[in-house]
Amino acid sequence: MFGVVPKPLWEKTNPADSNNRIEMCSRSLLIEDGNRLTLIDTGMGNKQSEKFFGYYDRWGTDTLERSLAEKGFHKEDITDVFLTHLHFDHCGGAVEKDKNGVLEPAFKNAVYWSHKDHWQWATVPNAREKASFLPENILPLQESGQLKLLEGKDLILTNTPLGFDIVLVDGHTEKQMLPLVQYKETTLVFAADLIPTVGHLPIPYIMGYDTRPLLSMEEKTQFLNRAVEEDFLLFMEHDPNHELISLQKTEKGVRMNEKYNLKNYFN
Q1: CB of 243 within 8 A of CB of 264?
Q2: Can you tell me the distance from the alpha carbon of 260 to that of 243, in angstroms, rounded to the nearest whole number?
Q3: pLDDT digits over 114-161, tens only?
Q4: Which end of the chain has fewer CB atoms within 10 angstroms, the N or the C?
């Protein structure tokens, strides 16, 4: 998760267990806008084998179904599923097995959104990312007819059919999409894998998973400087201890200012 950064440095913020694993989460974001109910990313899902999940030592009891129910919703209420990218820990829950073991979209009434260039990248994967792009998570979306692909190569896609702008970044994987969500007077950014945890805020702290590490550093620098200047809040998908953070500039670079609970911040 930290590439070439020495463990004694990154372990200060993300302590590892005896197997060198750190605590991570797969936090989704639900956006209610009138009759539209958009889910950002879907986590790992539960259809993989015990061997597959054995690598990750899953913990906690949260599920998408339970979390939706707590807000008074059901999976069939979701109108849109927005996938930042198609690595298994971001889209695994988008597809499920029915009672006969047949793969089908988990959200029957939703449109699924990906980026055209990323879809091509994921369905004809390079050797490095092949283990992250699992066909069973991806192809049933296209086969169902529920898939729509966004297009564009600008840094920010504006006037999208989803009602929010999108930041495109290419360092982690081709055309990862970060939603820029406007709520009242605040801009909230779903940070996804550009900044997986608060421990990844320092510019050189990038994942070994990134396909273009130098580009990741450039993209982080540009994004974090803008985030401070425009008072963006970062929604942390993978950090189990930080849900929502503000930023500040320090002598060491951009760092966390305050951390918040999403619900309490806006209520």
Answers
A1: no
A2: 7
A3: 999 999 999 999 999 999 999 999 999 999 999 999 999 999 999 999
A4: C
Backbone angles phi, psi at 38, to 5 degrees: -105, 130
Q: What does the alpha-carbon distance between residue 90 and residue 238 come to, in Å, rounded to a whole number?
A: 10
Q: Are 187 and 204 in contact (CB under 8 A)?
A: no
Entry field: residues in the chain: 267
Give the Å distances, CA to CA, from 83 to 15, 88, 190: 29, 11, 11
Residue listed under structure tokens 């406007």:
182
- For 201, counting Cβ atoms within 10 Å of its Cβ (0-12 exposed, 13-18 middle, 19+ buried), the class is buried
Q: Return the ∠ at Cα 206 (arms to 200 and 209), rounded to 5°.
A: 125
pLDDT in tens, 16-36: 999 999 999 999 999 999 999
Q: What is the 3-state secondary structure (H, E, C) of 197-246?
A: CHHHCCCCCCCCCCCCHHHHHHHHHHHHHHHHHCCCEEECCCCCCCCEEE
The DSSP output letter for 146 is -
The sheet that has 111-115: what strands, in order across it? 29-33, 36-40, 80-82, 111-115, 147-150
Cα–Cα distance for residue pair 126/133, rounded to 1 Å: 9
| Residue 235 CA from chain centroid, whole number | 9
Q: Can you give the pTM of this predicted structure? A: 0.95
Written as six digits, the tokens of 47 are: 């259809």
Tokens of 81: 């599923």
C-alpha span between 20 and 121 (Å, rounded): 30
The count of other CB atoms within 10 Å of the CB of residue 93 is: 26
